[in-house]
User: Which sequence fits this backbone?
């Protein structure tokens, strides 16, 4: 079973998804300045924003996840930084086609009343 990562890092902009594990690990090391062995899930998106690859180091090997949408596009955030750190919850939003800039999913409930 894959453990939850300590953090999720999105590589800003478009990435050539023809790269496999070694190419993506080199990209993490050289472009993002982070060790690919860190307890971090690295997420990459193609120019068309309909494909993602995710790279994760686990104990003695890399996991490489690939997701292709048949319809629609991922709401990939625009950023001037090389990478954007998001939460695991925000990653679920992204994978479900939601924007990371949404204010909130539901209003919080406090002591039998909605705030």
Assistant:
């Amino acid at each position: 079973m894959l453990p939850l990562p300590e953090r999720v890092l999105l590589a800003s902009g478009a990435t050539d998804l023809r790269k496999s594990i070694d190419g993506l690990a080199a990209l993490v090391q050289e472009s993002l300045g982070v060790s690919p062995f860190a307890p971090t899930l690295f997420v990459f998106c193609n120019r068309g924003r309909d494909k993602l690859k995710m790279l994760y180091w686990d104990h003695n090997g890399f996991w490489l996840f690939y997701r292709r949408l048949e319809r629609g596009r991922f709401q990939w955030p625009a950023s001037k930084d090389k990478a954007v750190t998001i939460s695991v919850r925000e990653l679920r939003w992204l994978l479900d086609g939601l924007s990371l800039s949404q204010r909130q999913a539901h209003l919080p409930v406090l002591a039998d009343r909605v705030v």
Summary: The longest helix spans residues 21-32. Helices lie at 21-32, 88-95.
